[in-house]
Amino acid sequence: MSRTTTLAAITATAMISTAFATPAAFADAPTIESGNAHWNIKESFLRYVQSPFVASTITTTEGAEKVLRDGKLADFALPVNAADSALDANGNGTIDLDGAISIEGHHGAMDIKMSDFKIVVNGTKGVLQADYVRKGAMPGSEPTTATGDDKPIAEFEVTDALKPGKDNKLSATFTPTKLTEFGVDIFGSSYEVGKPLDDSKVDVDLTFKAPKEEMKPADPKPTDPKPTDEDGSSTGAIVGIVMAVIAVLGGLGFAATQPSVQKLINQLSLIHI
């Protein structure tokens, strides 16, 4: 093979490789941009603490908000801290939440404070974890205090992976939830560890950053618009080399449909006109 033909083969291979360049890989792990979570603890519990004889004071701080329905507290809204949240390509990871909740009642006999909330997902298992301080005493009992740091207080089943959907958004509801031993430590022994709470749920609404645009195939640029035929090789021979390279890379049938390859062949066909 002459030097010119060899150079043509090398050039053709490089040009075809460029034409079939793989688009920039989309980052498989989506990036959370913003969102909110909602937690109602348990509907019957919220009704109880709002009853007149409990005389409760319920406050939210650090970004958390009380969500009212028909004038009554229905659940708590906790904004997503996107900077400290991360999910992998399979939807596993941590959704960090801002906000703190305080529930006081029975003239100080019930004093619950929770903060530093997180939703942690691993496969089909999800948990809501938090820091907490619970103080109080039943009538006739000595006051007690219980504390926890980053403890899973409620758990739930995750049936669908937490992945971006239409318009890079995700909405999911997890129900029922179950109190863990730490959750029972907070809300009282009238609840059982691991027993589903039929009127409980955790909702999450997320917005993800749009994925990066895919890289467009580069336009092939001939290295020499006027190659010479040192041993009588023709443009047809060079095109033949190009087509052979295409066949190796992916098949003529598929390649012929690619605009960048068609453009390349047209450029080569103009050589020596």
Could you describe the 3D structure shown?
Strands 2, 5, 6, 7, 8, 9, 10, 12 and 13 form a nine-stranded antiparallel β-sheet that branches. Strands 3-4-1-14-11 form a five-stranded antiparallel β-sheet, with helices on one face. It has 273 residues and is α+β, with helices and mostly antiparallel strands. The protein has six helices and 14 strands. It folds into two domains: 3-21 and 217-269, no CATH class; 32-208, no CATH class. The longest helix is centred in the first third of the chain and has 17 residues, at 3-19. It is elongated.
Summarize the structure.
This protein is an alpha+beta fold and 273 residues long. Helix content is 22%, strand content 35%.
Rounded to an integer, what's the Rg over CA atoms? Answer: 32 Å
Helical stretch count? Answer: 6
Structural class comes to alpha+beta
| Helix and strand run | HEHEEEEEEEEEEEHEEHHH
What fraction of residues sit in β-strands? 25-35%
As a percent range, the share of helical residues equals 10-25%
- Rough shape? elongated
How far from one another are the termini? Answer: 23 Å
Can you summarize the main beta sheet?
Answer: 9 strands, antiparallel
Unreliable stretches (pLDDT < 50, length at least 5) are 3-26, 230-234, 248-256
Report the strand count.
Answer: 14
Overall tally of domains:
2
- Summed over residues and divided by their number, the pLDDT gives a mean of 81
